Amino acid sequence: MENTSLSKQLFNTFSAGRTPCADDLPTGKMYQILEDPFGLWCHFHAPKNEAVEEPNLYENLRGKTDKLIREHWIYEHCKNPVTITGNDSEKFINTIKAMQEGAEGIIGGTLWDLRGAEGLYGGVNFLLKVPQGQSVFGAYHYKIVQLKRAGEMKEHYALQTALLNKILTEIQGYDAGEALFIFKAKEQILTCARVMERAKNAAVLYHSIRRGETVPEAKKPPKGALSPWRVYANKYVFEKHDLVLIPHLNNTMREILRKNNINTYDDIVTAGFEKIKELLSDPTYPENTPVLTYAHALAYVKNKPVLRAKGKFPPPTKKRNLYFDFEATETFQENNVSFIYLIGIWDKEEDKFIPFVAKEEKEEEIIFKQFANYVADCGPDVALYHWTEYEVKKMKALCNKYPNIKAELERLVSACVDLKIEVEKAFYLPAPSLSLKAAAPALGFNWRQKDCGAMDSMVYFTKWLNTGDEAALKKVLMYNEDDCIAMLKVELALCDLLARGEVLEVSELL
Question: Domains in the chain, start-ordered, CATH in brackets?
């Protein structure tokens, strides 16, 4: 090929006279193939009107931050990089032209190989010129550099990059063999050949899902799939009474049941405990697997909790009953640090919400002092309810960070009661897990805001700090208040059902 026409000939060859279409595999779909295959199936086969866009403010903000960090690294290591712009076709040909012209580095390059029925295409963070080897462009070649804010290699990073390297190898006629990953605190070399077989298998799965030959499982609600298919996926599994709703069943267990024509939680109850015991009494499974399976299925069929053990619930009533929850930042912006920025308390006796807010890390100790002062006496007449061990682990860790309030933190820890553990000891719930976001709705409580979850609250908090927008702070406080109230509502609902005798006793049914 003559040098003047090289880029055009390469473009014509690897575009195959077309642009990417639905039959091709975008390498950026690798995360979805591995982590959200049902959402991928929905993209191709679910009714389009079922899609519900749920903007993720946290990921949007983090994406902007990641872009800044990538640019900082690139400009520190490459004096004159070329940034690729244009529409899809223009980006591809401009990437080839930049390689042909020997650009020191290429930002946002696009690579295509649309030859054959199932083509590949995708974008690359950065292509770095390596002045050795012999490519079609001359005595140099390009290798892929991926800049990630994660702390370590993830499978979808590796497989995506292996496929991109395959395209790059075909285009430049030289296999760089390796790709460079830049993580938060380290660099890592990926040898693409080592993961190529897994990448090919993932590509096969993608096309099988696209053609409708494979229908993957949805995940457990409330996160049955990623946006825009989360709402549909949750509805789908609940309407099907799918086995994925039984909390502890893994893929292997579900497959065993399905091979025996047990496809729903109704089928589990119909089959009876003895049949479930026969199928799931495997020495590699936890001993109580059959009981857990049958009892949870029964809770769904009857739409009410099943009593696991008498006398375990409720926890002993105290004179003061406080339900608390922490909100913490993450290092999603370039220079920020992680700290607890909000401690929320629902005071049952006072019937009110009390928040303590820290604007920056140096105020973290102050709000824990305020928390301790509000609780005051952490004696036997005070209970601090939380859900999961996060809050207790955090306070124990802060004992070292803030030795001046170590005694107060230890007193707070001594009054803590993990309500999740108390519920788990006593009940099987008609819920896909014992996360608060699954357990509370199963007992009739729902969060007031649809657009503010744990991660989004960080963004609203940051917005308030940067702009003084009180409406943003109000959303954060409302979200935290609902978390606190949810715990109380779970407790009250279960106590009410016990008082009215509206729970089943699993010991009488097995």
Answer: 3-210 (3.90.320), 241-303 (1.10.150), 320-507 (3.30.420.10)
pTM for this prediction: 0.86
Q: Cβ distance 153 to 181 under 8 Å? A: yes
What's the pLDDT score for residue 498?
94
Which pLDDT value is given to residue 333?
A: 47
**58, 125, 158, 338, 341 from 62: Cα distances, Å:** 6, 16, 21, 14, 18
| Residue 164 Rama label (left phi>0; alpha psi -120 to 50; beta) | alpha
Instruction: Report the run of H or E that residue 426 belongs to, with start and end.
Output: helix 419-426
What are the φ and ψ backbone dihedral angles of 386, each rounded to 5 degrees?
-140, 175
For position 396, what pLDDT does the model report?
A: 97
What gap in Å lies between CA 352 and CA 350, rounded to an integer? 6
For the chain, percent of residues with pLDDT exceeding 70: 94
Cα dihedral angle (178, 182, 185, 186), rounded to 10 degrees? 10
Q: Higher-confidence residue: 76 or 371?
A: 371
The per-residue pLDDT for range 56-70, each reduced to its tens digit, is 666 666 656 666 667
Residue 367 has which token pair?
A: 């709000």
Calpha distance 160→27 (Å, rounded):
5
Residue 18's contacts (CB-CB under 8 Å, 6 or more residues apart) are 114
Cβ-Cβ contacts under 8 Å for 397 (sequence gap 6 or more): none
Q: Tell me: pLDDT of 245 over 50.
A: yes
- Beta-strand runs (E) in 158-201: 178-182, 187-191
